[in-house]
Automatic annotation (TrEMBL):
Keywords: Membrane, Transmembrane, Transmembrane helix. It comes from the Bacteria. This is Uncharacterized protein. The chain crosses the membrane at residues 6-25.
Amino acid sequence: MFVELIATIFAGIACAGLVMFLNMLTGKRLPKWLTPIAAGAGMIAMTISNEYTWFSRTSAELPEGMEIAMTVEEQSWLRPWTQIVPYTKRFVAVDTGTARTNDSAPDQKLADLYFFGRWSPVNQAPMLFDCAGNRSALLIDGAEFDAIGNVADANWQAMPPDDPILNTICET
């Protein structure tokens, strides 16, 4: 966030400097109000660019074995350009590389989910998926396992069969 703020400030300085240079080349014929307008326009353009490139920059840095299961796009009237082209504000990645199964319950998979948000810290949560029953159980508070390794106290929640997170983990 701090680096983006610095980049935005420098974009404004660069645009103002460009207008000042053009003003010098034209014999100071440009209006004086053009310099702060150019600085503001450069800062707005940099902010918009950072919003639209955040997802691609963040997803490119994910380690191997992490698959993006779901993205959430946002539109806002406070950002009128998002009405034309929405931007990705958050996404969920599944760590398929460390997904685990139990031989006694082959239709169940345990995987870590990572929740990324534009201005939020990354959150991680272990989740148990029942691929045959289209359901999941969040295991944040830990879990108790029975003698053969099945989760004994899972709080199962139904999921639609076309849920992107369920499909991502069950296809691995």
